[in-house]
Amino acid sequence: MILEIPLLRLPAAGALTVAVSILALLAWGVSPVVAGPQALGEFEGHGDVGSPARAGSATWNAASQEYRLSAAGVNMWGPRDELQLVWKRLKGDFILRARVEFEGEGVDPHRKAGVIARTSLEPDSPYADAVVHGDGLTSLQFRRTRGAETEEVVSEVTGADVLQIERQGATVTVSVARFGDVFSASQVTDLALGEEVYVGLFLCSHNPEVVERATFRNVRLVRPAPDDLVPYRDYLGSRLELLDVASGHRQVIRESAEPFEAPNWTLDGESLIYNASGSGEGRGRLHRFDLMTRQPTLIDTGTVVANNNDHVISFDGTMLGISSHTGEGSAVYTLPIEGGEPKRITPSTPSYLHGWSPDGKWLVYTGGRNDRYDIYRIPSDGGGPEERLTEHEGLDDGPEYSPDGRHIYFNSTRSGTMQIWRMRADGSAPEQVTDDEYNNWFPHLSPDGTQMAFISFPKEVDPSDHPYYKRVYLRLMPVEGGPAKVIAYVYGGQGTINVPSWSPDGTMLAFVSNSGMD
Question: Which CATH superfamily groups domain 237-515?
Answer without folding.
Answer: TolB, C-terminal domain (2.120.10.30)
